[in-house]
Every structure is written in C-alpha cells, then in structure tokens.
Amino acid sequence: MSEFSADPRAALDQLCQEKGIDYARLSAAIGRNPAYIQQYIKRGTPRRLAEQDRARIAAFLGVAESILGGPVQRVASRAGPRGRDMVLVPKLAVGASAGAGASIDGEPVEGEVAFDPKWLRSLGADPRALSIIRVEGDSMAPTLSDGDDILVDGGDAAARLRDGIYVLRMDDVLMVKRVARAPGQGRIAVISDNPHYRSWDDLPLSAVQLVGRVVWTGRRVS
Hints:
single chain; globular
C-alpha cells in the first residue's frame, strides 16, 4: 500500500501523481480557479486547506481527510470495559455506477462507519485512505448488487495495479468494475461481471483513472 507523507501538501501531490489528476482539474473539481491547487502545493498559499475544500478534495480522490491535514478519524469503542480505538471511515454521498455510469462532483461526506483497525489490517488496507461508497446498478451482479456499500482503499490504485475490482473514472464517470491486465505493456481490460453489460477487452491504462481497490462489501438482508 502507498505510504503518504505527514506533510499534507506532499501527500496531496503524491495522490495527484498516483491517480493521474493534474492540479488544474482538481482545482476545478472543488470550484476553485485553475491555479489554486498548484499554488497550495508549490507555494504554500493558502497555508492550510479550508475545511470545505479539504472535504471535497478527499471525496474526489476517495481518501480520508486525515491524509490532507484533517483530524485523525478515531473513536473509542464502548464494546468492552477497556474500550478500543476504532477507525472511522467516511461514507461519501455518491454512488459508483455498476450500470451506465454516474457523475461525480466532489460530493461531501454524509456519515462515518467505525471499523476495528486490526480487521482493516487483515484486509491489507490503509486506514488513512479508506472510504465507503454505494453501488448503483447491476452490471457487476452477482458479485455486487445495486445498493451494496463497498469499502475502497484509495492507497491501492494504479501504483499497485493487479487483477481485482476497482472504483475508477472513465470519461469523468465514476464506475465500479473488474480490472485485469491485458496483453501488452500498460494495457488493461475493464470488465462487467454481468454479461448483459459492456466490457472493454483492451484499453490503455491512461484511459481510466483508478480511484482505489474494493477490499470489502456490505449488503442489506431483506
């Protein structure tokens, strides 16, 4: 998994590089002028990200705000007499389409879910880079269903690409798909598990932006 710098500027710069997002695009995603992110990273202006900007950047990149200088999201569990530190993972107010696609505009955090850090480590996940989003559509059925919540590790993306299920952006649309390496350097396949939906057998990796790897899913029982 990626290790992020304790310096929020360096961490943001690393995230932009790993996810293939330039400064101007990220600035536009949070409603700022094109030079805003570059000035923050390279010139130190502003000295700190405003809370709203930080939340939007974290949501857009699919990472925890703590990586960008926000508070570490931990609470004490009341399950036992001694208590236990839990990791609060942000639940983003956006769905990743498992159908035709859904737009994303840096949606804010709508809630938090507490997880045992030991269990998260067993998944090989970086607690600082996790987020939860909702699956929309049925193109990944039966693996994922409409309405499932998925736990996404934003620290496990292009830099560690291997076969698996990823949240990704293609043509500015947020999707959840199976990704596999295709023959040829830098080539991938983007696959819908439901055969009634389109898959892409051979794409350059540059055609998509990997947001993070899906490491767990939760499902309602009706």
